[in-house]
Specification:
single chain, alpha+beta, Glutathione S-transferase Yfyf (Class Pi), Chain A, domain 2, five-stranded mixed sheet, 5 strands
């Protein structure tokens, strides 16, 4: 169907399993497990099941930043969940995350073990558990929470909106690309103006707000997402790019980006079970 043709929605939508696009083989309108597969467990209290996507990187960076602070209890075992192969629909993964999205964390240091899913929830859980990277003063904590939730609400327009229609959809359509490009550039402008007067999102302090936003907006500003740097004119967002480079230079970020990375120029196949010390 050409862009000029009008789509008339049926009275009742039916799934034909032929939607096209890069991830059409794993997208479906129902939830739940598709196969039996137990999750592996390692020797540490914290078990991370994830992949080095922008959402997945948040948690591995968080854990590495905690270790960088000398918090030995944040040692963890990490297992890749290959979403392209449908690992997220295995029975063991669905048991700890019924939404079948990475990342997921299992805290086995308590009984019964506590499962946590959604990247923002995991960042908050770890920040509160270890009393780190999360401001205590009410005003600063509110600011941190605001930027954390800003990312949760904004990134779907970047990934599921712009990224999908610009990079992954089976055909290019001007309307959705223009619509989401406008929104993504507005978001970058929001960040750029804020970061003109702040080293990090919460002033001089590096927090979970930076950890959440960097893998999406930092990577985008440095030309690492969707091959869209020229199209979005990312060089014009100089303050976001400065902030992104500051994040990228942190040892915890460097290590966290490598965990559970299965493809790409920096991909490193790792043993089925590995822990943070394998990335030191």
């Amino acid at each position: 169907m050409s862009e000029s043709e009008s789509y008339v929605p049926p009275r009742v939508w039916r799934w034909d399993n032929q939607s096209g696009g890069k991830f059409s083989n794993i997208n479906r309108p129902v939830s739940g497990a598709t196969h039996q597969r137990e999750l592996p467990r390692g020797e540490h209290n914290l078990q991370l099941y994830s992949l080095a996507t922008p959402n997945g990187v948040k948690v591995s960076v968080m854990l590495e930043e905690l270790l960088e602070l000398g918090i030995a209890e944040a040692e963890y075992d990490a297992y890749p969940i290959d979403i392209g192969e449908g690992d997220q629909f295995g029975s063991g993964f669905v048991a700890i995350n019924p939404n079948s999205k990475i990342p997921a964390l299992l805290d086995c240091g308590v009984s019964p073990a506590i499962p946590v899913f959604e990247s923002g929830a995991i960042l908050l859980y770890l920040a509160e558990k270890f009393d780190a990277l999360y401001p205590k003063a009410p005003a600063q904590r509110a600011q941190c929470q605001s930027w954390l939730m800003w990312q949760m609400g904004s990134a779907p327009f970047l990934g599921g909106g712009f990224g999908h229609f610009y990079a992954y959809a089976p055909e290019k359509y001007r309307y959705p690309i223009d619509r989401y490009t406008m929104e993504v550039k507005r978001q970058l402008d929001v960040l750029d103006k804020h970061l003109a007067d702040n080293q990090f999102l919460c002033g001089d302090d590096y927090t979970i707000a930076d950890i959440a936003n960097y893998p999406w907006y930092g990577a985008l500003a440095l030309g690492q997402l969707y091959d869209a740097a020229e199209f979005l004119d990312v060089v014009s967002y100089e303050h976001v790019r400065r902030w992104a480079r500051d994040n990228e230079a942190r040892p915890g970020v460097m290590r966290g980006r490598r965990v559970n990375k299965l493809w790409g120029p920096e991909a490193e196949r790792v043993p089925e079970r590995h822990s943070a010390k394998d990335f030191l």
